[in-house]
Each structure stands twice: as structure tokens, then as C-alpha cells.
Amino acid sequence: MPVAIITGASKGLGRALAEALAARGWDLVLDARSPEVLKEAARGLEVYGTRVSALPGDVTDSWHRTGLVAQARRLGGVDLLVSNASALGAEPLVRLAELPLEGLRRALEVNVVAALGLVREALPLLREAPAGAVMTISSDAAAEAYETWGGYGASKAALDQLAAVLGAEEPGLRVWAVDPGDMATDLYAAAVPDDEDPRPDPASVVPGLLRLLDGRPASGRYGAVALLEAR
């Protein structure tokens, strides 16, 4: 069975994607910082009968990243690496004039440095996979100037560039940066707690991500909404 590593998989888009892949028979290595929430997410996947390894930890920890890849190797390799874990830099979001520099460093460490570190750990296995792919979860804040989203958006813009260069350097892989669009997630609630407008459930975005896996288009940046509309 194919094997996927998904970071930030205890809830939101990560958990929804994990469930969709488990339903397709994928074996999974899941990461999140909260052990209990991650364990609950893994238990919820037992109904699909696939192998699920849940490793709580922080993706900025190099030993944790090594452990994720080692566990995937035990399951058979790495066919898909999904960098979904994200940090905002400030909760709630603030203007750049008020953004703590340590918050910006944290966002860059989680969203960019750790993502590259995990790719480097997994790259030998991804190259060996019949259809190796890397999926980085981006944001429209990476491409648009929204007040208070500067630190987070800058980190996601850096992640987009990292994915673009990786795609050029590794032509045997598919490397997709995906903007999932607005979603009702804990991350968004922490970013803008006063915004009570309804937003789509993360599970509604997953079919767009699956279209990438099914069609294997060229490496590049994709919007989940456009992928859904193209069905």
C-alpha cells in the first residue's frame, strides 16, 4: 500500500486528508503536537483497516522528523509527504508594527525550515517511490496583502518558493503547493477570533487535493477551489 506522512494531522485539513487517504487504502504516518488529540484522530481511522502510526511531537525538532521518516520506512517507504503543520506567528494576528520577532521566527521555523528539513529526511524514499509527491499547504496570504497576515503570509510565500525550486530540482517527483482557500479551522479561529462568518469545512477541500494525486499534473502552485471547479 502507498504510504503518506501528514504533519498537523490531528484536526482540520490534515485530519480530513488522512481520512480520505485511509479510505483509499493508504498507510499513514501522522504528526501533531497534542498527543491526546492525535491519538483520537488515529483511532477514528481504525475503521478503514489501514496501518496508522501516530507520532506526537514538534516538526521543528529534527529528531521528531527523523522518527516520522523512520516509521514510514517501516511501513514501506514514502509515496506522499504533506507539510500541513502551520504556525501563525501571533494569536490573534497583529499588524507588522506589533508582530513579535520571536513569533515571526516561530512561523518561519514551523512553516518553512521544518518543512524543508522533513523533505530532506524523506527525499531518498520519495525518489524510490513509483509516484513520489510532496504537497505543501499554502495560503492566499502568501500571494495577497491582507492586513495583520504579514508574518504568516511571508512564511507561506517562502514555502511556495521552496516548493517551486524543489519541483525544478526534482523532476522525477511531483511537488504541489496548494492554497486550500477559506476553511473553518482552529488555526483560522485563533488568527481572527472575532470573525464569525461561516466557512467551508476542511473536508470539502479534500477532493481537490485528491485530484492532484489522481491526475499528477506538473509540479506547481494550485488552488483547491479551482481544482474542485475543474471536476
3D architecture notes:
The protein has helices at 12-23, 35-44, 62-75, 101-128, 150-169, 186-191, 206-215, 224-229; strands at residues 3-6, 27-32, 52-56, 80-83, 133-137, 174-179, 220-223. It has 231 residues and is of the alpha/beta class. A seven-stranded parallel sheet has the order 3-2-1-4-5-6-7, with helices on both faces. α3 (62-75) runs parallel beside α4 (101-128) and α4 (101-128) packs parallel to α5 (150-169). The two termini are 26 Å apart.
Question: What is the strand and helix layout of this fold?
Answer:
Layout: E1 3-6, H1 12-23, E2 27-32, H2 35-44, E3 52-56, H3 62-75, E4 80-83, H4 101-128, E5 133-137, H5 150-169, E6 174-179, H6 186-191, H7 206-215, E7 220-223, H8 224-229
Parallel strand pairs: 1-2, 1-4, 2-3, 4-5, 5-6, 6-7
